[in-house]
Batch of 3 targets.
Target 1
Amino acid sequence: MQKKKILEELVELLKSLGFKIRKDSGNFEGGACILFSEKLIVLNKNMPTEIHFKVLANVARDYLNKIYIKPRLREIIEKELETNSLQPIEIYVSKNEENNESNT
């Protein structure tokens, strides 16, 4: 499978699980969070495809034993995770916390 095709399949898989995927620029590789009950993955648009795949595979790790994933895509994700030391990051922010911060 070509890298671009693999990345597209991984993006579609995560979207089917309710994740929104956003690309931004900055001083980060990317990661996942939950913001106002919305599952969000942020990718650095300046990073190469390999980094995007790493971030997305890291998020998909939690679903490997819970849902059907095409065998070839599953194999590629598992292989990536063997060499990937990133840990998923989850951030929970409630509307009350946001309102309190903006009032101070």
Target 2
Amino acid sequence: MQNNRCHLFLPMDALKGYKEALREKEIVKEPRKTLLEDEEIILSNKILSLKEDIFVLIKYYDIYNYQLIKGKITKINYTYKYLYISDKKINFSDIIEIIIC
């Protein structure tokens, strides 16, 4: 009988999801940059020249801000417009800069 009553005295979150909402508000979001037409063409040509098993440094937008990732391209899908570096999937539309190492 005593085991059944234990859950009555556990602390509870009166406002479900409130703590997560507060944490999300604390995150500073960096706005996406828009590329000029010339920059888009250069980036598009670089993406088309990429091949699997080469090392690259990519700057891309990830949820709230820009990230840098360096590694070997393990998969490229030109139809659905994404690539994988190790286990990280990056959409072409999120990429802002590519440096081939």
Target 3
Amino acid sequence: MAIRKAEKGDIESVVSLGVLLWGDHGKEDLRREFSRLIASDDGCIFVMFEGEAPVGFAQCQLRHDYVEGTESSPVGYLEGIFVKEEVRRKGYGGELLRVCEKWAGEKGCTEFASDCEFGNEDSFNFHMAMGFAEANRVICFSKELH
């Protein structure tokens, strides 16, 4: 197992993993977003390999706006993390999280945060097992103005 910071040549591998995590996002949208992040100083994607095969990734960013449960700025933020089902339960998610936290610390962050969808028990359990504390629960609303 090896983890490295994603580069331009990793885009297709990361997009194929991203579609598995965010099935409602199109490949082209993810390709644009991931390309922007790879070129950014405020965001990073780490990709994990078993041999030559990409098996997971984590996307982290710096958030300069208010982040629930934090008191500093910027805050390192785990935007997404995914490990292929066939290689889960090997600690790979924790390894990906650690490189994101290290990256955020090197960027001057003293806090790291994340979120998950309400009802996503797998994600909730992962976060709790990784030492996160629940900061808040919220239901958001919107409506169109006519």
